[in-house]
């Protein structure tokens, strides 16, 4: 998606998955980055015409284009991440970001001393609101009194790529009392995590595991295993059994989750782990219902 | 006594400038470790080597014809409209509203209505900076840049809150079937000519008509006469009873309308729904196109095709090699630099050369 | 607005105003000498890239700063050659420079670092560290002034202080030195300078190069002070806002400080509040984000009136037609 | 005899296709006042600018006090002791007098010390040469006479030993000019050399020791002033005998066409440029409006021509004109039968990059006879242009040339042809012969008189007193935005008009010059 291949987050995760597949299988793939909205169709068609199969397209913004393109290439299987396209030759992969966000929201609320946690989003779109909404629900579920600050970086694709502003928003949130910040902002997030490290508060990364970026201040990362999804798609295609239709990657099948590693082990208490693990099980069991913003464009925990 | 023959002014100089820009671009390509000749071959082939290439080249060119004409008309009134980007954004909104408003029975009706919608919205967006310049003296270059930012915010606001179709993406629903424009492939198939599937559509013809109308406007109507006179000299315009406010407003409104028409091609002809960024920087390319085309509709058309080829070739280049798309931006910058700002570097030595060849004894003013 | 908020916004204002201020003063030198410059944006961008790139490679922010400044000055030189030597259109040259910067930075970034259009994140000595002003801790308990000194004035990187000091320095150079007198004269009436036996081109070249230098500082501050590395188009229109601030400031150094602080303040406010409740209705987020741009237009239209630019501004100096 | 102060040998200079100076040689003796005369465009300013290092010659050599000098730029000229007061002043408008004087000769990096030193020296200089100016006044607040003094002080401050003045008196009243000449005599007594460019023969005869004549880029003669006469110089200048009078029948004035009552204009900077002007012009009459440039004549023409707004009451043929808001524009004025030959043809009267035929319709392009439906009838316009070119003998006779490519005189003829052919009830004419050679002057004057004889009303503005005296049936004099008085040409002379132009209404007495100057110092008159 727009935001660049090396955003340390969503796109980079997909790239990692593809690379892993290349390394493990020695296969080859074509890749291209979009410079602008209007090139989506041109690019998709070209990949299909070049005989690429499957064609993996990343990002909700491609959904509508894919709807138009997929019927013209019945022989090709398309995989779209983050959106649903109902067509016989399309596999749609959806992630339950709200669930993962719920968990890191809980951790944030527990780690916060100031009872204020915050969120920096990239471009103000429903998907990002879905993250924010899950996060707020998790935080509020831990402690009704917790205040959740939410800022979006901007309203254009440039908002995925403005670390200066991300840093400034973070500082502003810190000024308002926040001591844990969750960045779901693509390249902008780099600035958010940096500002958090500079100011000495905790930060939560997104999509990829970003804990290694600033050891000591990275509380965790809400991982969204786009890499696995891409890898699986490539592998299934190689084997010739790529399923079309909608696939939901959630807590249960480990499509989303929170990252634990040597970089944040010291920051996460056992108590926290326990609470989060419990919640995780209850969500999987359906005992906790995390609201998905995109279902009805509203959020019970915060207002946008 | 002309310093340069006309052909030198309108053909030779732009050609030399263009070659210089390409040479420097080649150096840049070499610098990032690629073979400039291979790159050029890929670009030329990709742009004009197949009906597929031609389709995309002309599709992009159609966008640039509109934005180029927009900048050119404003240039004639000595107004530097950097707001083509925002005006085209608003034009997209107008086109989308028109297309979504009715279940259009036939594309031709929808096209006429969309032309109106795009033009009116684009014009309205240009009218505000024009008014501020004419009445309040706010510098139009800065206000139009600001209006680009504001247009983008406005569109996002609408797409996120008001016009959004169900789903994740901030975009409207697809336009109804009746608002789909026939593409070159569709039309040529009727006469049995095979043509690749490309977004090139009837808007190209609208673009050609726009060129002709702009030519008519500038050189055959009173308004065009007044626009050109005002652009040459404001005191002279005032002396002739040409109202600076009126001309500033009209020239900008026409300019904005032309920029807005770009949406007919991009939004109605290709995307078939309203996205958040429909313009692809075509508003800015328009500046380069107008400069290269010497602000003449024919020149604009030729320059637009050139830039269309550059865009399509650039896309191909990115696909085939690891040269990033921004190469196109660099080439575009160099073209603007050489044709617009460094024009004098080529012109004055040429003038001197021509002077030396034509040095007849100058009759120092007609004799009594 | 409660006090801690105010302190916080003031602090943010200074950070955000600094790149504007440096760029605005850059424009001031250039335009006072009669060379209009809408290429501030592009010069900041190349400076941001080269400062981040060199700092990333060498690990030294000072080398980065030097590289950024050199790059911005190289671009300034292009503008100077085009608009002074070859008497090209200054607006067009500025537009070209902005595009050139936007394209070249990405191209080179990709070639050098292969991380998309990004430089590696800067850490440690590759970034400017905040400076705690002397006595900040001691004073921070004093009501009102204390927090202001400790939290607003203190704790910025050196380039912020450089920007603030550049204001009186610019004023002094412009109005108290020979160079300043000539610079102002050449922007008003180059023929007067020419007939006094001073080279118009030399003066304008030096003004444009000073402009490049200051843009270099502004860009370096963005990439190595505010952020920790370069990202594509990271100047995000700041060069244009600086230009608006310059007009608002009527091409005067102290006014420039005021107008840049105002624009910095607007950005700080738009960062701080995602929507603004005006009682009757609420300004939605998209427009709060666009607030600096909207207010730029309002200010240009409503408060500046017809600001009189340097009289010879925008016109190449031609003595023989 | 000592070596010549200046010796120029074989100087040539071209501007693109225009050969402004061709193989010019001239010798100037030290301690003399040397005049240079020539028509407009003869190349005088170019020659002097070469001497001052502003332009570089294509060929030729310069010797100063017998030594060969290289003068690549003005700094070199200044070092060689040359000072120049340009025809178009080279002053920075929003700087003070002092700042303008030190510019380029500051003597140190920091201003405060340079300015103090300059202030002291300036005081000495101005006492010595009676050049009193307030060192802290801004140039834009000074009248042209004062600005010229600043230019002279600039040269003296740089210790110029050779002073060049390019048409210094064009903007001065006669008494100001007299004062200037006294200063020049003083400089000469000190042993300085002065080169004086003018096209006024009387001045040459009065103050110079020797005189050189230029024509069409060439030096035609250098003679001792004592041994020549005005008619002889005139003939050398234009290359044939010239008529210095306009033949015209006595006027037969009819009804009032134009009536102006208490007209006021405030400019963009808030300065009142017209302070209650009242006048009238009858059909069959030429009213000449004299005055030093910048005293409001231009503003009056612009208001009447619809180019700027004013307040007051103006009627044409009995019906009132709107002076501001809608209906006060130049287009409406034209429909009311007002023609306008503007003061600056290149800035206002013509669009320099339009073809001649396009310019022939300029201002009348909305006329029905140039229209064809929604479009313009370019063919009709071209036919009209061809007719006018033939009738007014405009050369080259090519409607496809751009206005820029015509010489000044022919450009003026295009404007005159356009405005006079409409047979307006009222013709506003500003500086009709500025920069036009004598042959064309005669022609233009004849055309204006012919229009008068058709019973049209004409308001003529000119800074050339000779032209006012020769053409007008009645003369009004403007000073500082007011009409100082009206005279009949037969009952007045240049001396009296000069006093009126200096703001002295009571011309019965002889006034001490000091008082005249005090008045002038207050003039807000500017010169572009
Ligand atoms: N800077 C210039 N560029 C091009 N042509 C010029 C320039 N200056 C003067 N000329 C041309 O050179 C010729 C001589 O001009 P110059 O100003 O020397 O005449 P002049 O004798 O001073 O006339 P005037 O009495 O009007 O001042 C004219 O034809 C003029 O158009
Ligand atoms: N700026 C210019 N560009 C091109 N050609 C010019 C320019 N100025 C003058 N010329 C040409 O040079 C010739 C001489 O022009 P100039 O203005 O010196 O004439 P002149 O001798 O002053 O005549 P007039 O008395 O009619 O004003 C003209 O015929 C004109 O074609
Ligand atoms: Mg002259
Ligand atoms: Mg002439």
Word description of this protein:
The complex is a heterotetramer of chains A (304), B (368), C (321) and D (528). In chain A, helix 4 runs antiparallel to helix 9. Chain A is α/β, with parallel strands linked by helices. In chain A, 41% of the residues lie in helices and 18% in strands. In chain B, helix 1 crosses helix 2 and helix 12 runs parallel beside helix 14. The two termini of chain B are 19 Å apart. With 321 residues, chain C is mainly α. In chain C, helix 7 crosses helix 8. Chain C is globular, with a radius of gyration of 20 Å. The termini of chain C are far apart. In chain D, the strands form five sheets. Chain D has a six-stranded mixed β-sheet with strand order 6-7-8-3-9-10, with helices on both faces. A six-stranded mixed β-sheet of chain D has the order 16-19-20-13-21-22, sandwiched between helices. Chain D has a four-stranded antiparallel β-sheet with strand order 2-1-4-5, with helices on one face. The C terminus of chain D is likely disordered.
Biggest sheet features of chain B: none
Distance between the first and last residues' Cα of chain A: 24 Å
Helix count from the secondary structure assignment of chain A: 10
Order of helices and strands of chain B: HHHHHHHHHHHHHHH
Shape of chain A: globular
Given as residue ranges, the uncertain stretches of chain B (5+ residues, pLDDT < 50) are: 361-368
- Say which molecules are bound, naming each kind only once: adenosine-5'-triphosphate, magnesium ion
Mean pLDDT of chain B: 85
Mean pLDDT of chain A: 80
Largest sheet of chain A: 6 strands, mixed
Q: What strand line-up does the widest sheet of chain A have?
A: 5-4-6-7-8-10
Indicate the low-confidence ranges of chain A by residue numbers.
1-6
Q: Write down the secondary-structure element order of chain A.
A: HHEHEEHEHEHEHEEHEEHH
| Secondary-structure class of chain A | alpha/beta
Structural class of chain B: mainly alpha
The percent of residues in helical segments of chain B reads: over 70%
For the secondary structure, the number of strands of chain A is 10
Rg from Cα of chain A: 19 Å
DSSP helix fraction of chain A: 40-55%
Distance N to C terminus of chain B: 19 Å
């Amino acid at each position: 998606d727009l935001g660049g291949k090396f955003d340390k987050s969503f796109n980079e995760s997909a790239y990692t998955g593809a690379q892993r597949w290349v390394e493990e299988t020695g296969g080859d793939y074509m890749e291209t980055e979009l410079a602008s909205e209007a090139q989506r169709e041109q690019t998709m068609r070209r990949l299909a015409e070049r005989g690429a199969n499957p064609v993996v397209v990343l990002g909700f913004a491609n959904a509508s284009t894919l709807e138009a393109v997929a019927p013209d290439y019945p022989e090709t299987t398309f995989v779209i991440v983050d959106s649903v396209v109902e067509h016989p030759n399309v596999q749609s992969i959806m992630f339950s970001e709200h669930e993962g966000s719920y968990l890191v929201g809980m951790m944030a609320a527990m780690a916060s001393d100031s009872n204020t946690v915050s969120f920096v989003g990239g471009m103000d779109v429903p998907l990002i609101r879905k993250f924010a909404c899950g996060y707020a629900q998790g935080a509020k579920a831990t402690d009704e009194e917790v205040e959740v600050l939410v800022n979006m970086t901007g309203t254009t694709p440039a908002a995925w790529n403005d670390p200066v502003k991300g840093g400034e928003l973070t500082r502003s949130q810190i000024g308002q009392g926040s001591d844990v910040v969750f960045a779901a902002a693509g390249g902008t997030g780099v600035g958010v995590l940096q500002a958090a490290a500079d100011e000495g508060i905790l930060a939560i990364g997104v999509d990829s595991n970003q804990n290694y970026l600033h050891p000591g201040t990275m509380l965790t990362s809400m991982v969204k295993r786009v890499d696995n999804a891409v890898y699986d798609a490539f592998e299934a295609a190689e084997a010739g059994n790529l399923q079309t239709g909608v696939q939901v990657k959630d807590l249960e099948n480990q499509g989303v989750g929170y990252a634990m590693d040597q970089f944040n082990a010291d920051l996460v208490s056992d108590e926290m782990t326990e609470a989060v693990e419990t919640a995780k099980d209850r969500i999987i069991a359906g005992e906790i219902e995390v609201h998905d913003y995109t279902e009805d464009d509203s959020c019970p925990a915060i207002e946008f | 006594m002309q310093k340069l023959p006309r052909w030198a002014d309108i053909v030779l100089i732009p050609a030399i400038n263009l070659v210089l820009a390409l040479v420097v671009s080649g150096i840049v390509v070499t610098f990032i470790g690629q073979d400039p000749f291979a790159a050029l071959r890929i670009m030329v082939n990709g742009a004009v080597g197949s009906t597929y290439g031609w389709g995309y080249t002309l599709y992009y060119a159609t966008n640039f014809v509109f934005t180029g004409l927009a900048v050119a008309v404003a240039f004639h009134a000595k107004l530097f409209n950097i707001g083509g980007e925002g005006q085209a954004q608003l034009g997209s909104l107008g086109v989308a509203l028109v297309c979504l408003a009715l279940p259009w029975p036939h594309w031709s009706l929808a096209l006429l209505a969309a032309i109106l919608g795009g033009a009116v919205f684009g014009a309205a967006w240009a009218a505000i900076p024009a008014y501020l310049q004419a009445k309040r003296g706010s510098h139009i270059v800065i206000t139009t840049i600001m209006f680009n930012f504001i247009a983008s915010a406005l569109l996002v606001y609408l797409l996120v809150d008001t016009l959004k179709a169900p789903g994740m993406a901030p975009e409207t629903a697809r336009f109804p079937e009746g608002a789909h424009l026939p593409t070159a492939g569709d039309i040529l198939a009727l006469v049995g000519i095979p043509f690749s599937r490309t977004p090139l559509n009837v808007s190209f013809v609208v673009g050609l008509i726009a060129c002709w109308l702009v030519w008519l406007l500038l050189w055959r109507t009173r308004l065009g006469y007044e626009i050109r006179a005002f652009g040459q000299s404001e005191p002279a315009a005032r002396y002739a009873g040409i109202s600076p406010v009126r001309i500033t407003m009209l020239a900008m409104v026409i300019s904005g309308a032309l920029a807005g028409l770009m949406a007919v091609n991009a939004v109605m002809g290709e995307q078939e729904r309203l996205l958040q960024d429909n313009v692809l920087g075509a508003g800015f390319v328009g500046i380069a196109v107008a400069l290269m085309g010497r602000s003449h509709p024919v020149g604009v058309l030729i320059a637009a095709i050139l830039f269309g080829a550059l865009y399509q070739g650039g896309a191909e280049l990115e696909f085939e090699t690891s040269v990033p798309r921004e190469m196109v931006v660099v080439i575009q910058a160099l073209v603007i630099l050489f044709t617009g700002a460094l024009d004098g570097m080529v012109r004055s030595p040429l003038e001197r050369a021509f002077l030396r060849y034509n040095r007849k004894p100058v009759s120092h003013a007609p004799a009594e | 607005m409660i006090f801690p908020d105010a302190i916080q916004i003031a602090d943010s204002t200074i950070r955000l105003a600094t790149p504007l201020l440096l760029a605005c003063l850059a424009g001031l030198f250039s335009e006072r000498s009669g060379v209009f410059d809408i290429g501030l944006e592009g010069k900041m961008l190349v400076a941001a890239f080269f400062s981040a790139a060199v700092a990333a490679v060498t690990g030294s922010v000072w080398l980065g700063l030097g590289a950024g400044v050199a790059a911005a000055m190289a671009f300034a030189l292009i503008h100077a050659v085009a608009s002074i030597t070859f008497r090209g259109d200054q607006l067009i040259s500025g537009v070209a420079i902005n595009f050139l910067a936007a394209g070249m930075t990405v191209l080179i970034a990709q070639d050098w670092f292969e991380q998309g259009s990004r430089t590696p994140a800067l850490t440690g000595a590759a970034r400017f560290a905040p400076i705690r002003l002397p006595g900040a801790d001691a004073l921070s308990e004093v009501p009102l002034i204390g927090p202001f000194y400790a939290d607003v004035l203190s704790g910025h990187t050196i380039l912020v202080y450089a920007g603030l000091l550049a204001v009186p320095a610019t004023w002094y150079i412009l109005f108290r030195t020979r160079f300043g007198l000539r610079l102002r004269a050449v922007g008003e009436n180059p023929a007067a300078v020419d007939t006094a036996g001073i080279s118009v081109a030399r003066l304008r070249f030096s003004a444009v190069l000073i402009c490049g230098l200051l843009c270099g500082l502004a860009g370096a501050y963005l990439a190595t002070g505010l952020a920790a590395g370069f990202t594509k188009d990271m100047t995000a229109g700041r060069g244009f806002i600086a230009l608006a601030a310059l007009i608002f400031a009527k091409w005067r150094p102290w006014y420039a400080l005021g107008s840049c602080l105002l624009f910095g303040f607007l950005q700080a406010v738009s960062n701080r509040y995602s929507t603004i409740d005006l009682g009757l209705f609420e300004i939605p987020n998209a427009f709060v984000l666009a607030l600096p741009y909207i207010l730029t237009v309002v200010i240009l239209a409503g408060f500046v009136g017809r600001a009189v630019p340097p009289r010879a501004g925008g016109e190449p100096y031609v003595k023989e037609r | 005899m000592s070596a010549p102060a200046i010796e120029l040998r074989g100087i040539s200079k071209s501007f693109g296709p225009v050969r402004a100076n061709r193989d010019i040689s001239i010798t100037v003796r030290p301690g003399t006042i040397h005049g240079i005369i020539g028509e407009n465009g003869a190349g005088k300013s170019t020659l002097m600018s070469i001497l001052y290092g502003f332009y570089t010659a294509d060929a030729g050599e310069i010797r100063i006090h017998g030594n060969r000098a290289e003068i690549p730029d003005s700094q070199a000229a200044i070092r060689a002791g040359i000072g120049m007061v340009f025809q178009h002043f080279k002053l920075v408008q929003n700087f003070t007098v002092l700042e303008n004087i030190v510019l380029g000769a500051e003597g140190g990096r920091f201003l405060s010390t340079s300015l103090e030193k300059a202030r002291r020296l300036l005081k000495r200089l101005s006492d010595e040469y009676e050049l009193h100016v307030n060192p802290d006044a801004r140039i834009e607040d000074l009248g042209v006479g004062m600005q010229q003094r600043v230019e002279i002080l600039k040269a003296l401050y740089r210790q110029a030993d050779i002073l060049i003045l390019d048409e210094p008196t064009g903007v001065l009243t006669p008494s100001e000019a007299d004062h200037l000449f006294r200063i020049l005599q003083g400089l000469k007594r000190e042993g300085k050399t002065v080169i004086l460019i003018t096209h006024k023969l009387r001045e040459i005869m009065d103050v110079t020791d020797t005189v050189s004549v230029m024509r069409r880029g060439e030096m035609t003669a250098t003679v001792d002033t004592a041994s020549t006469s005005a008619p002889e110089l005139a003939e050398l200048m234009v290359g044939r005998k010239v008529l210095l009078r306009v033949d015209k029948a006595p006027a037969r004035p009819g009804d009032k066409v134009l009536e102006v009552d208490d007209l006021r204009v405030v400019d963009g900077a808030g300065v009142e440029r017209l302070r209650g002007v009242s006048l009238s012009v009858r059909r069959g009459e030429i009213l000449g409006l004299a005055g030093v440039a910048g005293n409001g004549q231009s503003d009056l023409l612009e208001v009447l021509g619809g180019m700027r707004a004013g307040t007051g009451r103006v009627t044409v043929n009995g019906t009132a004109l709107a002076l501001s808001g809608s209906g006060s524009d130049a287009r409406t004025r034209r429909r009311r039968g007002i023609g306008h030959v503007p003061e600056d043809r290149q800035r206002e009267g013509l669009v320099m990059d339009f073809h001649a035929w396009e310019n022939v319709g300029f201002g009348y392009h909305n006329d029905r006879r140039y229209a064809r439906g929604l479009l313009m009838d370019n063919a009709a316009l071209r036919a009209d242009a061809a007719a006018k070119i033939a009738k007014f003998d405009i050369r080259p006779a090519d409607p496809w040339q751009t206005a820029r490519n015509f010489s000044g005189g022919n450009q003026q003829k295009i404007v005159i042809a356009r405005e006079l052919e409409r047979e307006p009830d009222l013709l506003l004419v500003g500086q009709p012969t500025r920069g036009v050679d004598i042959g064309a002057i005669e022609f233009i004057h004849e055309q204006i008189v012919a229009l008068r004889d058709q019973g049209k009303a004409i308001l003529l503005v000119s800074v050339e007193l000779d032209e006012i005296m020769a053409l007008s049936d009645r003369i009004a004099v403007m000073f500082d935005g007011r009409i100082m008085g009206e005279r009949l040409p037969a009952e007045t002379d240049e001396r009296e008009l000069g006093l009126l132009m200096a703001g002295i209404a009571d011309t019965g007495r002889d006034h001490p010059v000091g008082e005249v100057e005090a008045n002038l110092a207050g003039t807000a008159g500017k010169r572009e």
